[in-house]
């Protein structure tokens, strides 16, 4: 009898940010013999009880995942995890409180780190139980490397056709301007001020984020006036409410709001980027897009040092307009590459050499997942995990019909819009052409939002 190999489950929460990178990872894994299942995180979770034992690639280890991790382990799956938000970190104690849980960390078999600093953060976590840490980088960065960034050339050309010369303003205010206002975590913290258990850090962070949000709105009319011969495109965070930004387009004729597709082609097409405390600033630094880190208000304890250090820091509106106008005209470029690379190397592996996706697959191969399945769980655990997942699925599907709920179908569609098998296959072929591989890759649709990748 042939030995069964581990099925690799690759959940995607925010399609525009994660899907292309995880497709790359899935194709490389499939070439190494892994059966790969990829798609909407929510819909993949509904199916885990019917998926052969394998490896689940988790994108976070927050306390919100405790129940799902428990179900996965009871069903006999193993968990390999990274933190998709690992480049944006407050001081360790606050990062640990927001992003990690000792319960979820205890369920993880292997940890993937963006780079050396991310690995250090995992090791220092009080709830770290010794799972091997692999500094492999992220497939998201692979798509920004010279050998793959041309994957986005059709989108770059389409964006330039649509907007001409433009400056990109990337926002990161979902915690105070969420798609569903009741899910704005830091606004809830502010509202709880004065009550028992109110967290002072969250209150301060919330006030700081709100101040930045208001400054960014107030900045746009002056910016649009300073760039009267150039368009300004606001790209809100995928979880943000677009309303406040769209409302401003009525006041500024050269202002537009768009967040379709991955951010990489937008950064490649833009004359310059304006942002504050956003992963996009790191991505722009990798790509070489001129960047302004706009800091009209500052707070050492709340600002994200890494992204802001990779752009030209400006603090006043007049200074912003002067700097960005010079960038739009091509008179001022990004920070010197050597300076950017010195910072990036502390935080991101696989900027050259083997792709991060290849390094991650090597971790899975070294553990033998491509030659065996994880050990079967006791039958009592399997039955319990299967029952818990069916109950969870039933509750989640009910919540999908509830307006304003975090699992609502409208919010799911906002983060994971419909995508066809043919579109996925087109993306695979474009990646394959650049890398001279993936000729044998096949994609089939298993169910709504869920796809299988195989050779």
- DSSP summary, beta strand count: 14
- Mean pLDDT across the residues is 95
Q: Taking strands numbered 1, 2, ... along the chain, how are they ordered across the largest sheet?
A: 6-5-4-3-1-2-14-13
Radius of gyration: 22 Å
Q: Detail the poorly predicted runs.
A: none
CATH topology of the largest domain: Rossmann fold
Class based on secondary structure composition and strand pairing:
alpha/beta
Q: Largest sheet, described in full?
A: 8 strands, mixed
Strand composition percent: 5-15%
How many domains?
Answer: 2
CATH class bucket of the largest domain: Alpha Beta
Q: What is the percent of helical residues?
A: 40-55%
The geometry reads as: globular
Would you identify the CATH architecture of the largest domain?
3-Layer(aba) Sandwich
Helical segment count: 20
What distance lies between the first and last C-alpha atoms, to the nearest angstrom? 21 Å
List keywords for this structure.
globular, 20 helices, Rossmann fold, alpha/beta
Question: Could you please describe the fold and organization of this structure?
Answer:
With 455 residues, the chain is an alpha/beta fold. The protein has 2 domains: 7-143 and 355-454, Rossmann fold; 150-347, Glycogen Phosphorylase B (Rossmann fold, 3-Layer(aba) Sandwich). It is built from 20 helices and 14 strands. An 8-stranded mixed beta sheet has the order 6-5-4-3-1-2-14-13, with helices on both faces. The longest helix is centred in the middle third of the chain and has 27 residues, at 200-226. The chain is globular. The mean pLDDT is 95.
